[in-house]
Each structure stands twice: as C-alpha cells, then as structure tokens.
Predict the 3D structure of the following.
Amino acid sequence: MNLEKSTKIQLKMRLNSIKNDKINEECGIFGGCSRAGNIAPYLKCALLKLQHRGQEAAGICCGDLKQTLYKDFGLVNSVFRNIKISDIKGSFGIGHVRYSTFGDSRKENIQPLKVTYMGEDVSLAHNGNVSEAKNIREKFERIGEVFLSSSDSEVILKRIIFSLKKKPSLWTYDEVAKCLCENFSLGSYCILLYLPNRIMAFRDPFGYRPLMFASCDEGDFAASEDVAFYGLKVNKMIEIMPSCGVEINSEGYEIKPAYTNKDISQCVFEQIYFASPASNIFSKSVYNTRYKLGEILAGCEDKDFCADVAIPVMDSGLACAIGYSSALNIPFHLGLIRNNWMERSFILPEQKKRTRNVLEKFIPVKSVIEGKKVVLIDDSLVRGTTSGEIIKILKECGASEVHMRSVSPKIINTCFWGVDIPTKEELISYNKTECEIAKIIGAKSVKFLPLDKLRDVFEGDIWCKKCFEENRK
Amino acid sequence: MNLEKSTKIQLKMRLNSIKNDKINEECGIFGGCSRAGNIAPYLKCALLKLQHRGQEAAGICCGDLKQTLYKDFGLVNSVFRNIKISDIKGSFGIGHVRYSTFGDSRKENIQPLKVTYMGEDVSLAHNGNVSEAKNIREKFERIGEVFLSSSDSEVILKRIIFSLKKKPSLWTYDEVAKCLCENFSLGSYCILLYLPNRIMAFRDPFGYRPLMFASCDEGDFAASEDVAFYGLKVNKMIEIMPSCGVEINSEGYEIKPAYTNKDISQCVFEQIYFASPASNIFSKSVYNTRYKLGEILAGCEDKDFCADVAIPVMDSGLACAIGYSSALNIPFHLGLIRNNWMERSFILPEQKKRTRNVLEKFIPVKSVIEGKKVVLIDDSLVRGTTSGEIIKILKECGASEVHMRSVSPKIINTCFWGVDIPTKEELISYNKTECEIAKIIGAKSVKFLPLDKLRDVFEGDIWCKKCFEENRK
Amino acid sequence: MNLEKSTKIQLKMRLNSIKNDKINEECGIFGGCSRAGNIAPYLKCALLKLQHRGQEAAGICCGDLKQTLYKDFGLVNSVFRNIKISDIKGSFGIGHVRYSTFGDSRKENIQPLKVTYMGEDVSLAHNGNVSEAKNIREKFERIGEVFLSSSDSEVILKRIIFSLKKKPSLWTYDEVAKCLCENFSLGSYCILLYLPNRIMAFRDPFGYRPLMFASCDEGDFAASEDVAFYGLKVNKMIEIMPSCGVEINSEGYEIKPAYTNKDISQCVFEQIYFASPASNIFSKSVYNTRYKLGEILAGCEDKDFCADVAIPVMDSGLACAIGYSSALNIPFHLGLIRNNWMERSFILPEQKKRTRNVLEKFIPVKSVIEGKKVVLIDDSLVRGTTSGEIIKILKECGASEVHMRSVSPKIINTCFWGVDIPTKEELISYNKTECEIAKIIGAKSVKFLPLDKLRDVFEGDIWCKKCFEENRK
Amino acid sequence: MNLEKSTKIQLKMRLNSIKNDKINEECGIFGGCSRAGNIAPYLKCALLKLQHRGQEAAGICCGDLKQTLYKDFGLVNSVFRNIKISDIKGSFGIGHVRYSTFGDSRKENIQPLKVTYMGEDVSLAHNGNVSEAKNIREKFERIGEVFLSSSDSEVILKRIIFSLKKKPSLWTYDEVAKCLCENFSLGSYCILLYLPNRIMAFRDPFGYRPLMFASCDEGDFAASEDVAFYGLKVNKMIEIMPSCGVEINSEGYEIKPAYTNKDISQCVFEQIYFASPASNIFSKSVYNTRYKLGEILAGCEDKDFCADVAIPVMDSGLACAIGYSSALNIPFHLGLIRNNWMERSFILPEQKKRTRNVLEKFIPVKSVIEGKKVVLIDDSLVRGTTSGEIIKILKECGASEVHMRSVSPKIINTCFWGVDIPTKEELISYNKTECEIAKIIGAKSVKFLPLDKLRDVFEGDIWCKKCFEENRK
C-alpha cells in the first residue's frame, strides 16, 4: 500500500468530515488619498495587514482622474510580485482583499470593480454582504440590464449609476448616500467608492462591519481595521459610526451621516474571530476581548475542574487560552505549532482545498501533551470537525484526557446577515447538549461560554448575537 | 558612439516617418457546432488560419448550455500554449482573432465577450466596424447604463438584450436580426452570437465584410474566410450574402435573411490586402485578383518602360508582382526576404512597436539588386513611409534605379466604414501627382493602377471603392 | 514630502542599522525510499515541515534508476505550484530546502545537484557547511577541473566521483564513506546521496547537525528533524549518531558507521533557534529546552525584579517566554503579533530584502503594552538591531519600561563551523557589558543567560558552544 | 465520429509517414565586441536574423570581465520577451540559436555554456558537430571527471581548461587553437569563446561550416552568416577561412591560423538549405546558387516536357523554382501559402511535434492548381514523406498531374560529419530509381539534379557532397 492507499485512506476518512469549520472571514478594504506622492505603496502595506480578512484574491485601483486597476487571485505579496509598486501613479486609491462570499471565483469578480462611465473612471470595493443585491440584480435583468460579473459590487455600482445618471465627478456624497440608503439599507457591509479625485466610504446603518478612519501625516485613509494604519504617523483616528461615512479629497476629509439611523447591531465575531488581535474594533481591543472571554469561561468551570495544560487552537484561540489558563492557573503551552508555510486553512473557495491542509497546518508538540490532561481552547465551534480532528491528534500524542472549551456560546443559527455559516443541521451545537457534543468530537468534556456571560464582555443592545439565539426576533 | 547613438539615430530619423503604412486588418471570426465531439480544436485550427486578420489577441468561447471563455493578448499559439485544447468541453463555440480597431488594448476588450443574463450564458464576437456603436453607447449611458469594456461587442450585446429582455434561450433568429437591423444597419461588420446550444451569424446589409459558411463532415461552421475551412471535409460551402445570416444548432443550419436589403458594397481591400491569398472572398480567388491586378498594371506601362527585375513587397504584393513581371517579361525575384521571426509589422496597437520592426522585417538579397533597375510592386501605398524606407534599402544595396508600382489606385480618402486609414493629409496620394510622390519616396517613378482600370477586376456596382474617390456620393 | 521622503527616510534610518540579526538557518534535507508508490508527495510534505530551515529555494530529485529533478527559488508551495506532484514517478528521492549559505543565488546552486556519470544518474543534497570545500575546489581547479556551480554540493560529488571513478551503481557505502572521511572530515554537515535505486545518508563526525531516520509503514526515510516524519506511521525512529550514516534500498535499511569517530560537538543553536519547537533534536525536545532556558533565566533575575508583562519575540522566543513568565509569575502576553503573510525576515539572500520586512513582520498589541513595564524575551541577540527596533516599537506603544532578556549567553565569537554569524565587531555582545548593550538597544536593562547556566540544559561535553566563548580551544 | 475519430484518423495515417523530412539545421552563432556601448541589442538583432538556423532555444552571454548569461527554450523574441535588452551591460558577448543536435533537450544544454574557472568567467558557444566529443567525454569520465550537461560545449570547454590549467585571462589564442587542433580536428563546427575582455572564434580545418567576420562602425563581430550583419555599418567583411580564426578585443581584431590545414570540404547544404537566401556563404550568394540550380535542373528536362505551373516548396525551394520556371518559361505561382503563424516544421526535437504541423503549414491556392499540370520544386528529398503529403494536397485541389523536382541530387548516404540525416534505409533515394520514387510519393514523375551537374555550381574539390555518393572515400 502506498500513500494514496495506506495513510491517505485513513486521512480521508477523517478529513471527509472536516469541512468549513469556521465562520468565514469578511474581506478587508482600505482606501483614501495620500498627502503627497503615490498611494500605491500605502495600499499594498495596508492590505498586507488586512490579509487575515481574505486570502483568495487582492486588488488595488489607483490614480487621480484616471484610474488603473491591478487585481488577481492570490495573496497580496503574490499578486504584486511582478508589479513595481512605486511606479504606480496617483494619490487616490482603494484596495481589497477578498474572501470568496457570494460570487464565484472568476477573475472579474475580484474587487475593486472599475468602470468608465460617461468618459470618467469610477471604482468600488466593498466587504460584507449586500442582502438586497440579488433582488436588485433580478429587477435590473428584467428591464434588460446585463451584468458582466456575478459580484455584488457591480450591482451596487450599477444601482448608483442608474440613480444618478450623470458624470461621476458631479456625484455628491449625499446623492450616493441617498441611493445606498434607498436600495441597500438592509445590508451588513462597508463600501469604498473612488470617483475622480475623491474617495467616499460608507458603513451600513446597523454598523455590522467595522470601518475606521485615520488622518495621518501620510494622508487620509479609511480601513476595515485600525491595524491597517500601523506604521503610519496617525494624527487622528476616528471610528466611522454605523450609518455614517466619510468623504476624502485632496483638501481633507469630512465625516458625514449617510443612512437613516437603525438600531446598532455590531457582529461579535469581528471581535471573536475575524479581526486581528492587534486591532481595536468597535472601540474595544480585540486581544483584550479574547483574553477576557477566556477568563470568564474559566470562571464557569466546576470548582474541582483541573488540567495539566491549556493549549490554544491558533490563531484566534490564543489570547482566549492565555486568559483562561491565567485565571485557573493551569500551565499554558503552545502544544500545537502552526505551520506558517501552509495557506490559512478553510480559506480557499473549493471544499477540497480546504480539507487538504488541516493536518499539515498544526503540528503537535509531543513533550507538552504526552501523559497530560489537556484543555483545548478555541474561539468557537462551528461544525466541530476541526476540533474532532485536533482532539484525535492530541490523543495520538498521548494526552490522557482532552477537554474542549469554546469562548463563544453555542452557535445554533445561521447568520441573518449572510456570513457564510453552514445550515443549522450542520452546526454541531444545534439541538445538542455539551455532553452529546463531547461524544461526537471525542472530548472528555465540552464547555461553551453561556450566552448570558457573553454580555459581560459585549454589553448593551448594540451587538448582533443572533447566531447564538434560537428564535430570531 | 554606440548603437543607441550611431546606428539608432540614423534609423530613428528614417523610422520616425514610418508609421502605420497599411490599411489595417479587420479581425477574423469563426464559430459553429461540431457534429460530434468538442469544437475547441476546430476553433484553434481555424483561428490559426485566420491569424493574418489580427495578431493582437485571440479568444474562444466554447460549451453547450454553459460556456467557457479563454482569451488573452498574443498570437493564437501563444494564447493557447498552456491550455489543453482537447480538454475544453462543448460542441458549440465562437472564436476571434483581433486587430485593435476601436476599443483600447485592455483585456476586457478582447473578444468573444461573454455574459450571463437571466441565468444563461451568451457570448458574441464581431469583426469590422459598428458605425452606430458610439451613439448607442452614449444613449445608453444617459439612461444610466454602464459599460465594463470599451468594445463595440458590449454595445451590440447590450442593445440586443435591452430589446429582447428575456432569457437568451428564448431569443429567435428573427428577433435578433430585427434588433440588429433597427440599430446597426449602417455598420460594416459580421457578428457571431453564441446562445445556449445555438450559433447565429450575421453579415451586414452592405456586405462590406465577407462571411462564409461550410457544412462539413465535422460540423457546421461560419468563418470570415474560406481558408479557415481548409483541412475539413467540406460538403457544402455557401457565401453568406449581404444582409443575410445563418442559424446553426445541433440539428443543422438555416440560411436566412436578416436585414432590409441595401446596395451591396464589398470592400475591395479584402481582396487586395486583408484576406489570405488562399481564400476566395466575394466569390473571387484572392490570389487571382492580385495576379490580375499586377497584369493590368503592367498593361498601363509606357511601351518603352523596362526593368531588370521585379520585386514584390511581401506578402500581399507577391501575387501582384508575379502577374506584373509575367505580363512584361521582366525577371521576377524575391529581392526582399521576409523575416518570419518578427511579428507582422504595423499590427501592434502602439505606434512605437509598429516602427521598431520595419527594418528587421525585410532583408534584401544583394545579388539580385546590385546594379539592377528594380521595379518594386506593392498592393497599395498609404502613407508611403514603408515604401520610402524599402527604396532606401534597395538603393543602399546598389539598385541603379527603383520604380514603385501600386496595384491599387491612389488612396485619397479615409474610410467611411471605419477602416483605420490615416487622415487625408497623412495619405501620400492626397493632392499629389505620381511625380511628386516619386520624389517624396525616392523612387525614379511611381505608378498607380488607374481607378477606371480597377473596374476590369472589380466589375459592377457591388464594390466599395470610396477611399479612391475624391468626393463621397 | 511623500512616502519616499517622509515616512521612508525615518524608516530607513532605523532600518539601516537592522541587518542580519539572527544566526542563519542551516537548510533542511529529506530523502529515502517509499515502500510502495511514488515518493514525491512524501518529499513535498516533509519539505513543507522543514521549511523553517530555509526559504530561499527548494528542490527534489526522484526516480528509480533514472532521476528527475525539480527545483527553483521560492517556498516549497510556490516551487511545486504548477507541478502535479502525484505524477512524479519513482520510489527513491531526496529533497532540500535551502537557506543561502555559501554559494551565491544562482539557480544552478539550488539543491539537489544531479549529474549523469558513466550513463547513470547520481544526485546529492547536503545541509550545513563543508569547511574543506573551498580548498578542494581550488585544488581541483589547479588540475584543470571546472565547476558549473559555486555550490559545495558539486565539490562533494566531484570529489566522490574522482575517488571512485566507476559507475555509481557500483559504489559501496563504505567507499563513499571513506572518501568523505578522507576529504570532508572537518565539516559540519549532513549529506543525502541518491544512487541508482539506493539512498545513502551521512552525518558528520562531530555530529554538529542533526540527522534522523524513521522506518515507517510508508517507507524508510532520513531527515534533518523528526518533525518531517509527522503524519507518517512511524514504526521505528533512530537518531543517526555522529560519524554514522544509513543506507536505504528497496529491501530495507542499514545504519552504519561512516567516519572515524571524533569528539561529539552538537550545535546548541539547533535547539535554541534553528529547529522546529515540535522537533526532538539530539534526543531532546526543542520546545522543552526553550521553556527550560526561560525558566533558568528567570532564576537569574534579581529578587526584586518585577514586570507587568512578559512578551516573546516570535517565533523562537515563544517557549522561552512561557517558561520565563511562568517561573516569575509575570503575566504572559502575545504583545507582538506576527504577520504570517510576510516572508520570514532575514531569510532572503540580499541585505535589502532582509530589512524591508522587519517593521511589517511584528504588529504590537497596544492594549497589553501601554503603560506597562515590559520584559521582552528572545532566544538570542546577534547584532541587536532587531531588538533595538522592537524596543522602539514597544515604547512608541506606551511601554513604561522595556527589559530585554536573551535565553542564550552572549554571542561573542564567530562560528568556527561556518554558520553565517557576523564578524566579532558586528556582534553586539562582543566586548560589551549588559549595561552598555542596554544603552545601545534602548532597553532599561538587558540580561543574558550566564554561560555556566547553559550547562544546566546542555550537559556534558557533547555540545558546541564555541560562539559563547572568547578563546577557541 | 468526432475530430479525434473522423478527420484525425485520416490525418494520422498520412502524418505517420511524415517524419523528419529535411536535413537538420546547424545552429547559428554570433559574437564580438561592440565599439562603444553594450553589445546585447546587437546580439539579439543578429540572432533574430540567424533564427532560421535553429528555433529550439536561444541564449546570449554578455559582459566585460564578468559575464551574465540569459538563455531559454523558445524563439529569440520569446526568450527575451521579459528582458530589457538595453539594460544588459557589457561590450563583449556571444550568442547562439539552437537546433537540437546531439544533447537532449534539457535547459543546461542550451548554449552559450558559461563557467567560472579560477575566479574568472568563460563562456563558449559552438555550432555544428564535434565528432570527437563522445570519445573525449568517455575518456574524461574514466579519469573521474563529471559533466553537468550532455552538450558538446561542455566537453570542448573542459578539454581546453584541462589542457591550459590557468586563469582564462592568461590563455593565448595560440594555446587554445593548439588544444582544439589536437583534440577536435575532425569536427565540422565553429566555436565562439568569450574570455575576460576577449572573444575568440574558430572555423574547423575542413571549413565545413561557414564563419564570417565584419568590422563595423558598431564593433567587430563574427557570425555564422553575413545576413547577421545586415543593418550594421560594415566597413570590412572577411570570410574566416577553413582552419582559421579571429581574436577580438577592444583594441581591434586579428585573423589568425588555428589548425593544421586540411582539404577544404564545405557543406553544399549550407547553400542549398541551411542558410538564408539573403546570405553569401562560402563566397557565393545563396539566392543565386538556388536560382542557378533551378535553371540547371530545367536544362535536364526532356525536350517535350511541359507543365502549366511551377510551384515551389517554401522557403528553400523558392529561388530554385524561380530559376527553373524562368528557364523553361513555365508560369511560376505560389501555389502553397506558408502559414507564418505555425512554428517552422521539423524543428522541434520530438518526433510528434514535428508531424503535427505539416498540414497546417502549407495552404494550397486552389485557383492556381485546379486542372493544372503542376511541377513542384523542392531543394531536396530526404525521406520523401513531406513531398508525398504535398502531392496529395495538390491532387485534392484538382491538379491533373504533379511532377516532383529536386534541385539537389539523390541523397543516398548519411552525413559523415554528423548532420542529422536519417539512416540509409530511411532515405527515399537509397537504392531506388526515380520511377520507383515517383510511385512512392504519388508523383507522375520525379527528377533529381544529376550529381555531375552539381559541379556546374559547386566547382572544384572544396565541397563536401558525400551524402550524394555511394561509397565514401
């Protein structure tokens, strides 16, 4: 028997059950106007720092009046490998790193989307989900409109153009905002629009996705996360509030309302999983949130619960595990080494590629596992397949017991806002007790953060926790 | 002094005056339905045989219900170098080789253009010029439509979709024809349309560009020139008449009228320059036409005119020169060797690349030139810059005299139909006598075919010769 | 001022002083014979797990009698992106990941090196440094031998061939070992040799570099580290002892002596920095070693020393920091997030590329740094430039104090064995007190592990610690 | 039935019998020293003009003291597509276009071959065949030398280095010549050697292959054919005589004897087939030779022989056909259009690729063939398979009769000098009468130039005609 047969058959049996086992990332955007000199190097640097939000494709659109577009599949470094970034002209620009959500993996779906309308260039990049896009697309098709891509970006841009019907240089911020408000008020998305010598940025009315602004020595920029500004000389950092936006030109910037206000509903998973631990999202430090969630979860343990070692599932479980182990005084160890040379798992659009990398991604450190009672800390359990796989690995390394801990509550519902969560039936927590879940994934015990404890971190009514709740309001 | 300085400066002075010195090619199209098995290899083979009609880019769109598109800049061989052509599925398909006419050199302008409308794939490829495209584009933009490319293909396809507003599988040939007739009746173009499991082909009402159909053992196909069918087992070959078209599906084909009849006006340059000498265009052998033009021109020479050697300007002047030399009994020699390893000159979209290759393209054979009275035969003179350059080369090789002959009459007008001819002022024949032209290009004498003699070859009123005529009717 | 001017000038001033600030990696090798089926997928998987040992280039040579070579610059994943690994034939093979040591960055220097001698294929890959290679090369050149690459692999292979002068299939293990022993007995290297249907592996007499062997269900393999065997069904794992080797063919394997015994002298930096924390090198867990070094260093702190947070310099400082913080009960935090999307710093051969990535590589987590007394734990200080840079970043984030700790003693000497350490003068610890060093790098205090404490981890005389010692024995 | 089945099966039957049906090209070389400025653009221009001598691969090696090498598979234009030729530094350089002869198609076999010996760069390019290379290679291997490529270039360069055993800058022309004379005196080759700031060129003692020298305003250069100098300002052109060579440095050049004189024996196929018609080889115009061969062959026809049209097999048969048709007053027509977009047939190293292109390469012009008695003129018949194929095509186009004519005598022997001719048994003329040959290829009649008539063109004893002769002297 060879690799295809012996090892691989066993692996396949395991791997077949491991599918998309994370809530999917939500793309990253960055754009603005550089104070002096070209913006392209800033765009590339920022996208590198937002790369965790999407690794399938990347693109930038730069210029002043005329815009030039560079985009391709692959990581930022690979997309720009053969492009001399310092040669790309223009003070204005927007950039995008993409995790494939809606829209299939065709090159024309990579953002930004650029068009020429009435002789002027316009481009658009958005992250998040545009709930109404499908309906608007169909309505457009019925009146004879044709789409060249299957991306929502084209729907948004078409919708704006169809409403305004004039040269992009004549569009006002208020007109664009009005169009978005009338047509896309139910979305959970942020938009960057690059018009001749102007950038407009919009955060949706609920504020589901984060949008940050920074006025720096180097220029004025908007970004999905403040980590994108790291390395710049920031003079003023502003969180763009839900239903608001910012207009940037070479003279300066103006923060403005855009949509009719709605109840704020910020996605907790931006804090728990999507964002960089170095970011401050929705005015909170992501690292601290995760640490605190770990601490709170520790407080929920039975008095007599003890373990020899607390091991995080990298990378998002790391701060959680530090908080957890510190609270319980359980030794913290990096028992699973992440192989940096593999692509981030679960990020490729096709199912097959997702599963191929799982085993390669984590390499166990036998010396901290063997003979130990291990408590494994993750940010969340979605399908539970990865957890099951990792528990198997830990046991093979000689762990005497493995206890699974999730710092987020049970995910028992799909995302109303379109985050790519599996159906209820595929969710391991749906209609199952912690005991039942433990059995399925092979853990000695499983514990989730109780939903009411989540409020200790995410206070008030400004958070979307719908995926933890059984019945939608 | 180095190359940049010594040789290059001299060359530059010469070359600067050599610009687009040919009437530009008019793209090539091929499409249909293969009887059994995939069409992709047939598309590739056919495009290779139509490559002389355009070398800037190539593309094919293949499938059955669903369509897959492959297109890129470069020669056919280079575009498909890394694609396993036999793996491309589907019995239906259309293909295109592009010479850049309208529409700048962006990848999205390469044809075919494929879109998905109401859940179904449609693609389109056209050659020639669509006079009304610009107006229709502007009209569309005013009502809020946005175009993702700058190609006329998108305008045509949008216009059809906007008229029909229903699933492509429901479009009838007559409906599409009606839409074309109402909107693009002044064009000089041919269209291939690939709908789910159907191909439609249309030739414009004036029949400016050629369109051939062949029913073969291998399938039913339409093509710009019959040379594209070479190698197939052709059972029936039909010239699609002006204002007509053909619909092809897996059951067979039907030749049908499409537009309201207009006066036929076939472009003489298809015979003189664009088409392959192996083709039969507008029911005439291209090779024979060129040979006969050479013969007729020979008949116009003064009785006492004699020369030591007749040399063709390759490739289109070749048959002309054989006819000419044979009629006058002047020895025929290939005094200018074409360097096959250079790209065909004048074909790249940017001016600079056009001029770079001129000198490299022709290498003189000194032994047949030195000390000889040379008569140089070309198909036409546009700006005259290439002719001037070649005459210089011949003299440097020791030609005692060089006489220039053009088998087409003086080109003194731009093309009403959009063929990419320079402005009148750039045309060497505009407002100049043969004597004056000879002086400019450095020839001992220059002679063009008299316009009335052209009628000996192109009889009747079915030919467009507008570029030879001073006042447009 | 633009990016080139404003930000960049400041950065440049910082970055200019940051140069190669780590002891360089020492390449990784893997080879053997797969029991049934092709070896290529095993080679690729193993090289991915050894990628931390070298990221400049990768290659594999596979086959049975005939060998096929695939190699290129780039990470393993990138080198094999367009190669269908399961199509590569052959049960035998060797692979290499390269950090550029001697030998400049030309493609022919990438390993394995394959030649055809007397009609048979032979290939060789080695890691480490071959001290005598330069002399042997010169000696060879004097007798008229010419080298096509500048790699030591060619010198070793040439030397073997020159000694044996017969078909590779006739070479015995003992003959090859004798040749190595007579010519390369002073090196610090491991060799993989792929002869027709045979693999030979050798570890140098001092055992400077590690070499592991594993007999698995899937085949018999030798590797630089045991982490390379992870994922295989290992039946027997053997550390190839210094001066020994192993011969592998399709029948099985034989561990054999190769060189005359010398005093064992294993490189401590394999444990401290080079190897994966998941590996067991020289019979010790790398993770444990680093953890313990942290603990011991903690024990050396003044009684009254305290700090608010212990932060590791990723990745090699991580286990050290956990040990350190745990011993002193200082909160452990990941205050510097590693950007996985950047290439590992200091790894590219040119100085310029090395420095470009430094700032991008670590992103500080402000919320765990601001207002805190930080103790920063690294595995070692070489030039000290990175440390200085990181301290600057921490202070900019609001750290009230930064204390630097190195779990290895002061490096005050270059490597006798050719590890790419800067000259003495460039070493920050050379001739400097901890106080002086602290001032240079901007730390409140600096502490190194005392050399005599190192013996608590690396006991006995079997360790090379020459770079910590002033006078070479 | 689909393409694979219907057309392809028929084609396959035809094509299977068409194999390498030409004597193979013999590579092209160019090198020298540019007077001022970089040589790289001159090298590229020259190689483009020598491209007909080899299309498998191309390379240049440029510099002054240090040399840089650029080489790859593909046509010159494709190899240098992504290289900015004007950026390549250095006044000295050598270049090579390769037709694969000995040495398989591995990248390391592409020329020039560059090595660093005793710290100095040396490179070598040669064309033709080095009869003694195989023996010398084996001798070298027996003493323990190893070769990294399978090209003869490495053997020659090794042999020189082994003889001289000193720094290349110290090698004298006479020493190198002596080494070549002693070791490679039986070859049929030309060599370019690039030493630090010097170029040496050598033509073999028999003068089998041509070597030209030109002192130009732009520099001093050696080349396989004088066509390579076209476009330069040539002040002095010299044919390097058999057994001689030239040394070029920045001061000037010196023509010198190199080998012991032998009987001159110039390859007639350089005139008949290999060289460009624009070249003057062995002091004769290639075009004129071919024309004259056509005339002489015409003179051998029966008095009553007549035909309607004379058609050349492109490209080498062209001048022959003009000469032939002119002598007999048979109308000359280009009845087979060459498709310039296909790669030159018979040029790719693998048999399969050779045959694939045959049908695509020539497109018949029906209007000059149909109903005509055709006489088809080719330069030579080797296997006769192409001729058979073309005759079939002509008949399918309606030719009433096809008569085959070869302007070279029957090829009945393999090439003593290593030109890649098939074995005797594969030669169509071996042991067959013209009548028998006609039957095989489907011609009405076949006629070869009688061997004694060849002397009317190639006078004296200085020509190698061994392949036409039964018994070797």
